[in-house]
Specification:
heterodimer; A: about 550 residues; alpha+beta; nine-stranded antiparallel sheet; 18 helices; B: about 425 residues; eight-stranded mixed sheet; three-stranded antiparallel sheet; about 45% helix
Chain lengths: ~550, ~425
């Protein structure tokens, strides 16, 4: 973007280009094209941004609005001027980083500070509405009557036809009263009354919220309840036991005489300890983290899972790498006949989708009916997946089976990339086979594969597929205070907290996710630092 | 520098202005359907349904669109996703107006405030009592039922021509066939090695008089009355252990293996639900469906799952949604169409009478009508896990059956109390 329209210094005489700024005509044309492309691209980006801003403003998502606005201004500053050349190259990457990484982590972090989960899934107005709707009960033995929604001016009313063709009309604050000379439809149902016009279906559809909220007292006595219509063509009498006082922000149970007040954990609670459901989402600060780290019921299983996750990830890197390296070294020699066929065969497990392989292994490891016990072990009944320690062993074994071909592939590539001259030189200097491997090939190989090993560690740290498909995290200990099994990794624990058997605890799951993020990020940073140091030494 | 900036800036501004206009229009268009007023379109409904329900729903929806001018969008979703997505999306206002699902979601959905109560009114008389009971939560009805499912006994009529009157008789027949070499297993009871089999074993358990929850005065389950460690349950536990010891129950007999054994004639009896009805019909094994016989003196009552339609509390079209569910999905024609594609036991008695000549449906219907609704309390989620794990432990003989049962009940009570 350095080729822009060359402009003349003001002091230059017209018609003559100063030689210092002279450029070939082709470059100028390219400059013009680049300029046009830049303007068009920027305009497209701005147009999309404006559309997004309008949509966000309509949705009242002011945080997102602000973020998009700042981003758009930043993009314009970077690309509309000639300055900030490095930023021009970095901006797209940074934008993607912000959208796909930073935003996700921040969002998870914010959710981790809330009690978002079952019973706390929305805001307070929703909770109040749900509590009040739930408290409305049909007046016992009251009938469901054909009804019509009618209007006078802006006011809505209900026209109810009784079994004896009697017709009564009422509107909010005005109990039902008999109507003379109603307009009836062919079925005999009253649809309009003098001064009240009927609503067409599309008018009803247009005023649905209003009609849903319409309550018409049956009589002057509040205990007889209020008529309400759910479908616009019938009505029944309901009574509510709860009332919300907006000013005091309390809900009163009129029957029991109890007052419910909002608490800091997002529910309406009475002094006697009873609570109204649902609650709403509130910020609970570092509560989730504190629970994970201090509450014995959670900390115990959490630490156990953490240790196992490290062990699982470590072994899942070390063992497949060892096997892969060994096989790669063996098959690297051209002397072995048919090494190409062997190589293809070794690649087979890698060709399977991992979750499918895990599922197949689950069937093969069945205690009484699995292939391993029935055919390979002659009818043994070894509980491969239902005994805690055997399950851990099985999970590891299957994961090694799934991942060693990848390591083999990587090692083969890395070994072949080591120039033959280097090893030859070592040989000439008198190094033995082992010494060549130990001092020449391995260090060169490790330099190449270390970032990949770190990535594999991070992957296995979060290897949800294998665990979920093979054991589902089990076998579970029935005595454990929270739902956690012997083979659960942190990530499957997160899944169980968020979507598993019992209560959905999204906030808690986010807190564990953040802890996983911290651990994986720390390991990656340390690992990459190390590998860089390694590189510099050699 | 200034002049260099000018041209791109002017051009960008021009384009931006054009874009603004376009963007503004787009915004208005988006806002139009939500705005209320006589000029607004009649509205539209979004229904979330699993794949088996999507097709008949589209036909019923077409009738609704024709009569009322309301567009209905049927979105096909995996049954497993519907509940969680509904709970998380409903508060944003982006959720569906109507969802299809089993009744045991009710407690969770109401607890999250995403369901609107339904007033069935006189329509209630058309449904079987167990279906209506299942759709009630804390005294209010929340769903319109359309199908029932429960565990029944599938019997290979070639191996066992007579329906056993009791589970003891069933076992005797099964064991005799195994001894004669005509079968490999006396009976196939599917057990999930990860989570046990409380659902399949419930008819046997209730025949001992052992229930999950006691009842409130109005007949609903009472979450404060967990009965899993009642004296009857403490009698059931050792009996279960005996079955495990004798190899009648095996924790590695998954549903797939059990079904396969039955279809290949390796076992005369299978405890199964109607989910694999198509597989059974396609198989060449001659079979009959009966309620599961009791193992003790009390009646054997399986859990009944009731499938139904629910209306979202935050639906933008509450009247239309209620109208569609109450007046279009409840009709005998609609209920029949739902039966025709799903093959489940109809919840409407009139439709059940129409299809009762199908022996399989009739068998499952008898089983379901003898059953009790699966509790729809949110507390049930805490119950399933511990209950199943304890069953696994009992069957495998990992401890004293009575002690395991008592400890389980204690844990479940603690979890329910903790909320």
């Amino acid at each position: 973007m350095t080729h822009t329209l060359p402009t003349r210094p003001p002091h230059a005489p017209p018609g003559r280009r100063p030689p210092a700024e002279g450029r070939p005509a082709s470059a100028r044309r390219r400059g013009l094209g680049g300029l046009a492309a830049r303007i068009v691209l920027l305009a497209v980006v701005d147009a999309l941004a404006v559309y997004g801003l309008l949509a966000l403003a309509a949705d009242r998502s002011w945080w997102m609005f602000g973020a998009l606005l700042v981003g758009t201004v930043a993009v314009n500053i970077v690309y509309a001027t000639k300055r900030h050349v490095p930023a021009k190259y970095l901006a797209p990457g940074i934008a993607l980083l912000l959208v796909y990484q930073v935003y996700v982590v921040l969002y998870t972090g914010v959710a981790a500070l809330t009690n978002y989960g079952d019973g706390h899934n929305s805001d307070k107005p929703d909770a109040v509405a749900a509590i009040l709707a739930h408290s409305e009960t049909r007046v016992p033995d009251s009938p469901v009557r054909p009804a019509s929604v009618v209007a006078r001016g802006d006011r809505l009313g209900l026209l109810v036809t009784g079994p004896d063709r009697s017709v009564r009309l009422g509107w909010p604050g005005h109990p039902l009263e008999p109507v003379e000379q109603p307009v009836r439809d062919p079925a005999g149902r009253a649809v309009a009354a003098p001064g009240w016009r009927p609503l067409t279906y599309s008018q009803i559809a247009g005023r649905q919220q209003e009609i849903s909220a319409l309550r018409v007292p049956v009589t002057g006595d509040p205990n007889s309840g209020s008529l309400r219509t759910a479908d616009g063509i019938s009505a029944a009498a309901y009574r509510s036991t709860l009332a919300y006082d907006r000013a005091a922000d309390t809900i009163t149970d009129r029957v029991r005489g109890v007052v419910y007040r909002p608490t800091s954990d997002g529910v309406f609670a009475a002094p006697d300890g009873s609570r109204l459901s649902p609650g709403w989402k509130v910020f609970v600060g570092a509560d989730n983290f504190r629970r994970i780290l201090t509450e014995e019921d959670i900390r115990g299983p959490f630490l156990g899972v953490l240790v196992w996750t490290f062990f699982f990830a470590g072994v899942s890197v070390a063992l497949p790498f060892g096997i892969g390296l060994l096989l790669a070294t063996v098959l690297n020699g051209k002397r072995l006949r048919g090494h190409r066929i062997y190589r293809s065969l070794i690649m087979l497990p890698y060709a399977f989708p991992a979750f499918l392989a895990a599922l197949v292994w689950q069937g093969m490891l069945n205690t009484d009916y699995g292939y391993v016990n029935v055919s390979l072990l002659d009818g043994a009944h070894i509980p491969w997946l239902t005994d805690p320690w055997l399950a851990r062993l099985s999970v590891l074994a299957v994961n090694v089976w799934i991942s060693f071909p990848y390591m083999f592939l990587i090692c083969t590539g890395a070994l072949q990339a080591i120039p033959a001259e280097v090893t030859e030189a070592a040989r000439i200097d008198g190094a033995g086979r082992w010494q060549v491997l130990r001092h020449i090939r391995l260090p060169l190989l490790l330099t190449a594969v270390t970032p990949m090993l770190i990535a594999t560690f991070a992957f296995n740290f979060n290897n949800f597929n294998v665990i979920y498909m093979l054991t589902g995290g089990g076998p579970k200990d029935p005595d454990a205070p929270i739902e956690v099994g012997s083979t659960d990794l942190l990530i499957s624990l997160v899944y169980k907290l968020a979507f598993g058997g019992s209560n959905r605890q999204y906030g808690m799951a986010c807190a564990v996710s953040i802890l996983i993020f911290v651990v994986v990020a720390a390991i990656s940073v340390i690992g990459l630092r190390r590998s860089r140091a390694f590189e510099e030494q050699t | 520098m200034r002049s260099r900036l000018l041209l791109p800036a002017v051009l960008a501004a021009t384009l931006l202005a054009t874009a603004c206009g376009g963007g503004g229009d787009g915004g208005d268009k988006n806002a139009a359907p939500a705005a209320s007023g006589p000029a607004a379109a009649t509205g539209s409904l979004t229904v979330w349904a699993d794949d088996a329900r999507a097709k008949p729903l589209q036909d019923i929806a077409a009738a609704f669109t024709r009569d009322k001018g309301v567009k209905v969008k049927v979105v096909q979703k995996g049954l497993g996703e519907i509940r969680d997505d509904f709970v998380s999306q409903a508060p944003t206002g982006q959720g569906p107006d109507v969802v299809v699902g089993p009744h045991d979601w009710l407690g969770k959905l109401v607890h999250n405030g995403v369901l609107a109560p339904l007033e069935l009114g006189d329509r209630a008389a058309a449904f079987s009592p167990v279906a209506l009971e299942a759709m009630r939560y804390e005294g209010r009805t929340y769903g319109l039922p359309y199908a029932l499912d429960s565990i029944a006994l599938l019997r290979n009529t070639e191996l066992a021509p007579q329906a056993p009157a009791s589970f003891a008789e069933l076992l005797a027949t099964g064991r005799r066939l195994v001894e004669e070499g005509k079968a490999k297993l006396p009976v196939a009871v599917p057990v999930d090695a990860k989570s046990g089999s409380p659902y399949h074993l419930y008819p046997l358990q209730t025949s001992f008089g052992c229930r999950v929850f006691g009842n409130k005065p109005d007949g609903a389950y009472d979450p404060t009355k967990l009965e899993l460690d009642s004296p009857d349950c403490l009698r059931f536990a050792p009996w279960l252990r005996e079955l495990g010891k004798d190899g009648v129950l095996s924790t590695s007999l998954t549903a797939d293996i059990a079904t396969d054994a039955f279809l290949k004639g390796r076992t005369p009896f299978l405890l199964a639900g109607p989910w694999d009805a198509a597989t059974f019909k396609a198989a060449h094994v001659p079979f009959a469906v009966d309620p599961v016989p009791g193992a003790d003196t009390a009646p054997a009552r399986p859990f009944v799952g009731v499938q139904g339609f629910f209306v979202g509390a935050k639906s933008a079209n509450p009247i239309l949604a209620q109208d569609f569910v109450l007046n279009y999905l409840s009709t005998p024609q609609a209920q029949r169409a739902l039966y025709d594609t799903g093959g489940r036991v109809p919840a409407t008695t009139a439709v059940l009478d129409q299809v009762a000549n199908d022996p399989m449906v009739a068998g499952f219907a008898r089983a379901a009508q003898a059953g009790v609704p699966t509790p729809n309390l949110p507390a049930m989620d805490s119950v399933w896990a511990d209950w199943g794990l304890t069953q696994l432990a009992i069957v495998q003989g990992r401890g004293d059956p009575a002690e395991l049962t008592t400890a389980m009940a204690g844990r479940i009570r603690a979890k329910i109390a903790a909320g």
